[in-house]
Amino acid sequence: MSRIRSVVAVSFLASMGFSTAVTAQEMISDTTARKQPLTTWGVQFEEFEYRYSDDDEELGVWNADAFYGTDDFKVRLLTTGEYEIAEQAYETLENQLVGQIPISKFFDAKAGVRFDTPEGPDRTYAVLGVAGLAPQWFEIDANLYVSKDGDTSTELDAEYELLLTNYWILAATLDATVAFSEDREIGVGKGLVSTETGLRLSYDLIDRAFSPYVGVVHERKYGDSADFAEADGGSTEDWFAVIGARIAF
Amino acid sequence: MKTRLLTGLLSLLMPAMVLAGEYDLTVDRVEIDTGDFVKEGIGYNGKSPGPVMRFKEGENVRINVTNNLDEMTSIHWHGLILPFDQDGVPGISFPGIKPGETFTYEFPIQQAGTYWFHSHSGFQEPDGAYGSIVIEPEGREPFRYDREYVVQLTDKHPHSGDRIMRNLKMMPDYYNREQQTVGEFFSDVSENGLMNTVRDRMAWGGMRMMKADVEDLQGFTGLINGKGPDQNWTGLFEPGERIRLRFINSSAMTYFDIRIPGLDMTVVQADGNNVQPVNVDEFRIGVAETYDVIVRPKDEQAYTIFAESMGRSGYARATLAPEEGMEAAVPQLREPARLTMADMSGMHGMDHGSMAGMDHGNMEMGSSEDMAGMDHSSMEGKDHSNMSSMDHSNMKGMDHSGMAGMDHGSMAMGKESPSDPFYAKGSGLVPTAANGGKFLSYADLKAQNPLYEDREPTREIELRLTGNMERYTWSINGVKYEDADPIRLKYGERVRFKFVNETMMTHPMHLHGMWSILDVGAGQWNPIKHTVSVQPGTTVYMETEVDEPGQWAFHCHLSYHAAAGMFRKVIVEGGPESKQAKTDVIAEEGGEA
After folding, report:
1. B278 CB contacts (<8 Å, ≥6 apart)?
2. Does B160 touch chain A (CB under 8 A)?
3. Which residues from B are below 8 Å from A37, CB to CB?
4. Nearest-angstrom CA–CA distance, B497 and B500
5. What ipTM was estimated for this complex?
6. Which domains does chain B have, with CATH numbers?
7. Residue at A140 is within a domain
8. Is residue B179 less than 8 Å (CB to CB) from chain A?
9. Structural domain count, chain A
10. DSSP codes, A114-144
11. How far is B536 from chain A (nearest CA, A)?
12. What are phi and psi of B438, to 5 degrees?
């Protein structure tokens, strides 16, 4: 630090000048970023994994979302896909674009559209949902879908994380779909359609940005949906061994 | 040296003359090496931390700050009393300093003591833009020392401030690695029984709150004067010398519990203002606070300055030694702190008023009729809203029979249930000294020389400290800065601020430009601070003599809380002609109060 010290004789006049010079400032208004809503973004892959089923089916699966926005409004893109490696085809491919606003201390409401473009017929739905943290630390995501043709269904996603240590985490997930009307073309029967339950043991390798895991996943179809699957030569129940990573950035 | 001597001589001879110092600071991209990691950051004059700025009380300083960054910057002189347009808060004091621009700060130094400076732009401060200020007093100090060192702490994190803010917004527990685990469940079961443990977990789970939510930001390396624990900053001494250590907590987020095993510390100054000396074994330094302590090592040996974070997730370490290279044992970190239901007591809109009666029972009015000498150490921190209106003459007549069971500050160190009037009763955050000795409390702080005459406040302003951990939103009275109207004060009034902490985190509240007279119940001897920590579930009062016109920032000094909205602008209306700023503020900042 360069530093010059000097002695200055200051007359009364000059000292008055000093104080008036300081005060001739106007009070400005705050137009800095601090006064603006804080805009943030994030990308998370809850699942990014390879699945191997009990009848030798191999899948590449992801379940991810990206958001951009403020405390009061976020835009969120949710994407899920199951890629059949042998057949080189998407068993499922869902993309949702929703707007999200807080409705309570722990829950947000979402509204938007969902596009399903797997192998086979496509579907477009309107989405209405709530997502947040329920008591006892259950992450909940519940959605209502209405297709262009008026078919309605709901989907409930729940997740619980058990901290074996602060780095080893056992995550239990449940995903259940209930349809209020039949959509035979895509194999959906009225009533409980399907469940997917998973148990994944992860280790936070790099912060919470990269957490490899292994686990098991159980998929099951029910009622008419199971019958449709059988009729189409598919399976109604599958067990998978999974290996993958949770990713956040 | 020569010029300095001359300066001193001349100033003695010619009292009509005013000292003027000119200083240069550059704001630069720098490399920061903590010993654990190396990262790019921001510093002053090519280094982080920046230099120790040494001023003299009574001088007029001119500080030329050159911005070598490719973004706006600013310097705030933390704790200095100065004209508001020199305070260095972009959007409030001035527009900021553009890239490539040199801004000259110019203000008179009207105080003495230990302070610090830092950028008030974005997250430049957590990224390394801070330094220290030491102001030599005009008169003699009420304590002696042979040697002095600045001991400036920070919580250096490998991530940039922007990234940390984003991660906290995405996952509020992103950095929390002290969460309760299955292992802790079983150890709690063996200690407290299965049902109690399950009930405890259900109660916290029901609130969706974490007992482990003490430190939002973990994974940092504690630095002292820019050195990590392994780099071991060392201050030399000769046995028998009195050493003044000027502790400054420049952390973004971290409170530190500081001790020097083997040495008693005498606290002589807090936030730059002299306090009546208190001997302690350990003290907690809030973010942005300063404490000056005097130690006197008599032996020819090294001593470790050990600064453990409040949540025990990290530490800083330095050494006092007769010779370079000597070192002493470094203590182990203690068990992580856990919040208790007492720390949550502010959250459910609890009626603090009902506590007032109880607290007044605690007032130690008995032993002395002399207010000044009275020890009020057990009454602060809770709700004594009636204090200000109390007729002191009546106190002598108080019934002291209830005092026997009182929780005296001096007795508060009992090992089983430590207590401190500035923490909620039963709080999990109440500090205890590692050696079982004396831990400094706010209640121990008494001003050495009151700056102001004690008088009734003209009004009270309640500021509820609010937030939502799961969303990582922080606010005052439930309103974030972006939506808030300024707080309007009138020049000449004495305002009593009532902080009610309704969150589970500790908030170091910092009012710019005017002193915060912390109510520890010592009347005119209440300590004068610039940053006041408000613990979860407590109500704390401070009073401010509104004696500086202009507009000022008022915020929680945890960087990510301030950025998330726990921030206000204060406008002081009116003022003497000579000092008055143009108060025709441009219409702005609509929204709720």
Report:
1. B266, B267, B440, B444, B445
2. no
3. 482
4. 10
5. 0.89
6. 2-143 (2.60.40.420), 342-593 (2.60.40.420)
7. yes
8. yes
9. 1
10. EEE--SS--EEEEEEEEEEEEGGGEEEEEEE
11. 19
12. -85, 130
pLDDT, tens digit (0-9, with 9 covering 90-100), for B91-148 = 999 999 999 999 999 999 999 999 999 999 999 999 999 999 999 999 999 999 999 9
User: Exposure of B245 by Cβ count < 10 A (0-12 exposed, 13-18 middle, 19+ buried)?
Assistant: buried
Alpha carbons B518 and B145: distance in angstroms, whole number: 27
pLDDT tens figures, B394-411: 333 333 333 333 333 333
Name residue, tokens 């406008």: B571
Is there a domain that residue A182 lies in? yes
Rounded mean pLDDT, A240-248: 98
How far, in Å, CA of A95 to CA of A112, rounded? Answer: 11
**CA of A171 vs chain B CAs: smallest distance (Å):** 13
Q: What is the pLDDT of residue B345?
A: 81
Which of B95, B171, B551 lies closest to A27 in CB terms? B551
CATH number assigned to the domain comprising residue A185: 2.40.160.40
CB B413 within 8 A of CB B433: yes
Is the separation of the CB atoms in A74 and A40 below 8 Å? no
Contacts of A6 in chain B (CB under 8 A): 20-22
A161 phi and psi angles, rounded to 5 deg: -110, 125
- Phi, psi for B128 (deg, rounded to 5): 125, -5
**Four-CA torsion A200, A205, A211, A213, nearest 10 degrees:** -30
Q: State percent of chain A over pLDDT 90.
A: 88
Residue B531's pLDDT band (cuts 50, 70, 90) = very high
| Bridge partner list, B290 | B248
Q: What is the identity of the amino acid at B96? A: G
Q: Is the pLDDT of residue A30 over 60?
A: yes
Query: Across-strand partners of A229?
Result: none
Q: Which residues have C-beta within 8 Å of that of residue B169, sequence separation ≥ 6?
A: A38, A40, A42, B472, B564
Looking at the domain assignment, is residue A31 inside a domain?
Answer: no
B480 touches chain A (CB under 8 A): yes
Contacts of A41 in chain B (CB under 8 A): 166
CA distance linking residue B29 with residue A92, whole number of Å: 49
Q: Let me know the angle formed at the C-alpha of B496 by B490 and B497, rounded to the nearest 5 degrees.
A: 100
DSSP symbols for B13-65 = H-TT-EEEEEEEEEEEEEEEE-SS-EEEEEEETTBSS-PEEEEETTPEEEEEE
Any idea what the Cα angle at residue B523 is, between residues B522 and B527, rounded to 5°? 65
Identify which of A202, A204, A1, A43 has the alpha carbon closest to the alpha carbon of residue B22. Answer: A1
Distance (Å) of CA B374 to CA A189, B111, B421, B495? 80, 27, 16, 24
Q: Flag if B579 and A25 touch (Cβ within 8 Å).
A: no
- Token duo for residue B185: 């469940």
Q: Is B323 on the interface with A (CB under 8 A)?
A: no
Share of chain B above pLDDT 90, in %: 80
Nearest to B338 by CA among B495, B184, B444, B223: B184
- Give the one of B106, B108, B586 whose C-beta lies nearest to A29's C-beta: B586
Structural domain containing residue A150:
42-248
Give the largest Cα separation in chain A, rounded: 102
List the one residue out of B145, B143, B148, B88 whose CA is nearest residue B114: B148
Say if residues A67 and A110 touch (Cβ distance below 8 Å): no
Let me know if residue A221 belongs to a domain: yes
User: Strands B550-556, B507-511: parallel, antiparallel or unpaired by DSSP?
Assistant: antiparallel
Residue keyed to tokens 């003591």: B113
Which of left, alpha, beta for A120 (phi over 0: left; psi -120 to 50: alpha)?
left
Tokens representing B70 are 């490719």
Helix (H, G, I), strand (E, B) or coil at B90: strand
